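Feature request disguised as a bug: please show the residue count (276) next to Multiple sugar transport system permease protein in the output. Example input:
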Amino acid sequence: MSISNSMRKTFIYAMLAFCSLLFIAPLFWALTTALKDPTELYQFPPKWLPSVWKFGNFAEAWTVQPFNVFLKNTVVVTVMATLGQLISCAVVAYGFARFEFKGRNFLFLVVLSTMMIPWEVTMIPQYMEFNYLGWINTLKPLIVPAWFGSAYFIFLLRQFILTIPRELDEAATIDGASKLGIFLRIIVPLMGPALILVGVFQMMSCWNDYLGPLIFLNDQSKYTLTLGLAQFKGMFGVDMQSIMAITSLISIVPLAVFFFAQRYIVGGIAGTGIKG
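Example output, currently without the count:
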């Protein structure tokens, strides 16, 4: 029996290691391609490791385009949009989870139903609206909508709040705390794992967003990193070495965030969906 269990565990670990290699291989290929000499990019059969490691390719690719400007724009959009999602979704989720009012369940159902509408459907109406407001070619279309919440994040946070005992609210009310005080002093601190989960998801969505900036931004000084990366693809060719170098660099931030926040992500997911 013990031998069978040992073989089963060995097989499972071997499969997990194999699947991990499949996920790591593209990133490893991008990194090694960025370090190759241009003459080695299209060799057949392809070489996984470069003959000469050219670390200067990263600095050269970064300075070909104004990536310092692109990085600043991306950080502004990511930070402001993430902050907007955290504040707006937490407030709305608290209202749905703790306040009793007529039509609450219907309104919550309406909010959830918006998840079935793909962004491609609302893309043109949003563009027309932002154009009317004079926001085209600014960062506002990438930031302001996040301050009105996301149905998915509202659902996650509401489910997490439902797991918090109401007795804590009642005890705070007896002590004279207001609804806002209960939210800020009790609910928000206990929502830590769920808020980190929402923050990480929103951060990665903004950092990797390409379609949004492509539609709303025209001036290169407003470009984000993803649009700057696309500049290496021209009409007559593709600067593969620079693409791989910049891809490797801009992947560091989401990888680092996910690595340090993974235990909070697991805790946030585990804490949702327990109550309905």
